[in-house]
Design brief:
With about 600 residues, this protein is of the alpha+beta class. The longest helix is centred in the middle third of the chain and has 21 residues. Strands 19, 21, 22, 23, 24 and 26 form a 6-stranded antiparallel β-sheet that branches. Helix 1 packs parallel to helix 9. About 20% of the residues lie in helices and about 25% in strands. It has 11 helices and 26 strands.
């Protein structure tokens, strides 16, 4: 390395260290709001546990509940991947490229293969960080007023001297019924993923000499039922230091993994004669290491008995998923979910450091107990937290504030900004005073009524302030079948002309569904609107097209056009992606 070379200085409004889903979403959110953003990633690809290096699914709250799939930028990532990819249940080179393209198109300055190894403090704030880029042998110095630790391991937080937690807290620490009586160093283990392929002909497997041998099915912690599903139980390392012993954990996982495949091929009847290992993860999927300490520490009681939190900016809903610390070697139950009764809010106070004044926390290091971490560590949950952090960082730039001060003085603005960009926060509705649609009257060419329930999918649902359904209420406009209403439309009218230059539309991408994250649904979702046009009414009462939308497959779309003064706008649906009805959750209108 050219260690003696003078560092190349790079200044920004925001520096994010860590390019997992949380870091990427934070970067995109901030950059789209005009924040000069640097994203530093020490791997050659983005995505973290959701990259091709690890291969984990982007799961979240919809495992157990309808209408709660995480939207915003994480939904955009999912829809982009389903549209461009040939497989959804695995992360591959296509999903890597999709994520990198999204980050670059947002205007983020991306530094891959760059490991942060030093920093400079100014009091309790980070002034700059220094990183070495492996391939180029360059040293970079990144300076900004605000930083985000999205490393997964809390690396930046620890280097800055910020407070963090590791291991398992005692039951008395947070009054958690699922915690043990005494504290320990136990964390959650790491998993190494593999994939298989049917070659259409018998293929032998010769196990490497260093791999373990498992001659009996009783040697495995679970019964193998499917060859082409993730084997998450190939897990190890919870009783070790998941950072300091990371290489040793990976070596043990490789021995286990190849031993498992040797068992499948050579010691059991699994119908695997034609199957081969087509891919083995190069990096284990790590569940837990350091957890930051914020102004609030989320704990089990916040998940099992959720209450309204005035500073909620995200939510979770995955079960409390704390694995047996013996992982693969567990002699009793490997996994025991504690299912929740509902989703729960996550407060903004969990997303910044308690003692490093300009440091946000994103991803699985957010401020939570070991038990609560079993739920909040899910990738889509981390993603919407990342959007909250990136949006908050942009507002910190706007007001020249620290993360803590922003939460104390502008939390309502942050919440409304998140909803505006297709976020969802339990108990919070659209109250944006700039949204002109809230003062409009709404009508439509038709509305579908369910013959069995009598429920009317009325047009005025699009300004109710909630861009998704809820239990027993789909909360969206659905037109009559398009063979009856050939070009359905929806109109917003005002008492007097208003000036506007952009309209936001939120479509139906099946967020009502449960466990959609592991469904192999490819291409555009049929319920989404594909083609349409936006019209304004002129003084003569005629309609004039000001914007078009073609070949759409995304849930959230922004139509921008030259500023006009009008007393009505009309969105006309020309074609869906296959559904016989036009479907629309929300319409917003702005002059910006």
């Amino acid at each position: 390395m050219k260690g003696s070379a003078k560092p190349i200085e790079a200044q920004a409004d925001l520096v994010i260290v860590g390019g997992g889903i949380a870091g990427c979403v934070a970067a995109v959110a901030a950059a789209r709001m005009g924040t000069k953003t640097v994203l530093v990633q020490n791997r050659p690809v983005l995505g973290g546990n959701a990259s091709s290096e690890v291969g984990l699914l982007m799961a979240g709250a919809d495992r157990d509940f309808p209408h709660v799939r995480e939207t915003g930028i994480v939904e955009e990532i999912d829809l982009l991947n389903r549209y461009h990819n040939h497989e959804v249940q695995w992360r591959n080179c296509i999903s890597d490229a999709t994520l990198e393209n999204l980050v670059k198109e947002a205007g983020v300055d991306l530094y891959l293969n760059t490991h942060i190894h030093a920093l400079q403090m100014q009091g309790q704030s980070i002034r700059w960080v220094t990183g070495a880029q492996q391939a180029t042998e360059r040293i970079f110095q990144f300076e900004a007023p605000v930083f985000v630790d999205a490393t997964g391991d809390g690396t930046l937080l620890a280097m800055a001297g910020g407070a963090f937690m590791t291991g398992t807290e005692a039951r008395s620490t947070f009054q958690e019924s699922l915690a043990p009586e005494t504290a320990s160093d136990v964390m959650q283990g790491s998993t190494l993923m593999y994939r298989v392929k049917d070659m259409g002909r018998p293929v032998a497997f010769h196990s490497p000499p260093w791999a373990y041998c498992f001659p009996s099915a009783d040697d495995l912690p679970v019964k193998i039922r499917f060859l082409d599903k993730p084997q998450l139980w190939i897990e190890f390392g919870a009783r070790l230091d998941t950072i300091g012993d990371a290489d040793a954990i990976r070596e043990e996982l490789l021995k286990i993994l190849y031993g498992v495949w040797d068992h499948v091929k050579n010691h059991g009847d699994y119908g695997a004669d034609n199957y081969v290992l087509s891919w083995v993860g190069s990096v284990p999927g790590k569940r837990e290491s350091r957890r930051g300490v914020g102004d609030y520490i989320l704990n089990e009681n916040d998940l099992t008995h959720p209450t309204d939190l005035p500073d909620a900016v995200a939510y979770g809903g995955w079960p409390i998923d704390v694995h047996n610390p013996d992982g693969f070697y567990a002699r009793h139950k490997w996994l025991d979910y504690t299912h929740l009764k509902s989703i729960y809010p996550i407060p903004y106070r969990c997303y910044y450091s308690r003692d490093i004044t300009n440091l946000f926390l994103a991803g699985r290091i957010v401020s939570a107990s070991h038990v609560a971490h079993g739920s909040i560590r899910l990738i889509r949950t981390c993603g919407i937290g990342g959007q909250a952090v990136g949006t908050a960082a942009a507002l910190c730039r706007k007001y020249g504030m620290t993360p803590r001060a922003l939460g104390q003085e502008h939390i309502r603005e942050l919440q409304q900004e998140l909803l505006k960009h297709d976020g969802f926060i339990p108990g919070i509705r659209n109250e944006d005073p700039r949204d002109l649609a809230r003062q409009a009257r709404v009508s439509a060419s038709s509305a579908f009524r369910d013959a069995e329930t009598g429920y009317l999918f009325a047009a005025d649902k699009v300004i109710e302030g909630l861009s998704r359904g809820r239990m027993n209420d789909e909360n969206l406009w659905i037109s009559a079948p398009m063979d009856e209403d050939r070009e359905p439309w929806i109109v917003l009218e005002w008492e007097a002309p208003v000036k506007l230059n952009r309209v936001q539309l939120t479509f139906d991408t099946m967020v009502r569904e449960q466990r959609f994250f592991d469904r192999p649904v490819l291409g555009p979702l049929p319920t989404c609107i594909r083609n349409g046009r936006l019209e304004v009414r002129d003084d003569s009462g005629s309609w004039r097209t000001v914007a078009r939308m073609d070949d759409n497959y995304l849930r959230h779309r922004l139509l921008i056009f030259a500023s006009v003064a009008t007393d009505a706008i009309r969105f006309c649906v020309e074609e869906t992606q296959g559904d016989p009805h036009a479907r629309l959750y929300e319409v917003r209108a702005y002059k910006e």
